[in-house]
Amino acid sequence: MNDSEIQNRLSQQFAFIKEIDKEKQIGRQTYLSDAGRKENDAEHAWHLAIMCMLLSEYANEAIDVLHTMSMVLVHDLVEIDAGDTYAYDEAGNATKQEREKKAADRIFSLLPEDQAKKMRDLWEEFEEEKTPESRFAHCMDNLQPMMLNDASGGKAWREHEVHLSQILNRNRNTASGSELLWKYAKEHFIKPNLEKGNIKE
Length: 201
Description:
The chain is mainly alpha-helical. It is 65% helix and 4% strand. The N and C termini lie far apart (62 Å).
């Protein structure tokens, strides 16, 4: 590349880097472990990346950990435009796919073509949930809010009057990423909160 091409590439890369700073402003429904406030999307993505690194030994299949970490760091960038859709919001989930695809078209196109394709491919791989890495990434994405709900005394579950059937339906594929971690979550995150009444029968 000549100097002009490098400068143009850098301009595109920094435009994207600046744009994704907005992820820090996208609020989620899950409370932090101390229940003091709700987390944002950027905090969620960071947490998932660390979880991938620490818990990958429990994946059902061997995974490329760096690839999986990259996927979870990218997976919610579309929410800059589409917003966070709460797991148990039926109306929101009905339009989620369309909103997020439109967001992906805009946000990833800010990058140079080769990197735009790489980011888009990571996002689509996560959405399709067909690879060992994407299955484990989804497992992390499902377990993290459960862990925080337990740590915060079931606060978000109580506020939204979440039923056990809703949790089980959302997690119908969680075991495909890690049977051991799903079993742990049922025993340590779901069962105690069901017994305490934080999750409705």
